[in-house]
Amino acid sequence: MGKRGQSAIETLIILCVILLIFVMMIVVNQDVVKNYNSKFTVDRTNSALNDITNNAQSVYQQGVGAKTKVTINFPDGISNITFKNNVVKFRLNNNNLIQKKFEFNVTGTLVSYEGRRMINFESSSNTSTVFVNITDGI
User: Fold this and answer.
1) Burial code of 63-77, b = ≥16 C-beta within 10 A, e = fewer?
2) Could you tell me the pTM of the whole model?
3) Beta-bridge partner residues of 32
4) Across residues 59-84, what is the average pLDDT?
């Protein structure tokens, strides 16, 4: 009976060591996955911002009255989108800031939820300035 008890304890110790190694691998890989997800969100946000940039420039170059609607894919993880003068800012949930400065004024309102959405671009002017208004399509 002593040999069976010793064998059972040795097997239990081996299983505990294997379980400990497995748990350590999971903990280490969680940081890797979190960093990957963060980079993926930044890359997708940059892609959405590039789409906005290209379409805003196109509408601006066409002149006052030019309009277009474009489908743009917004990633999860954007907390807010703001327009101020000639800058568009995307604030991410991890507090990163991704922004783009234009050579012309941009205005607008975009909600920050995830998914593909129609975005309206319209070139307008007030008394002295031509600008591009960017809004969510309905």
Assistant:
1) eeeeeeebebebbeb
2) 0.76
3) none
4) 91
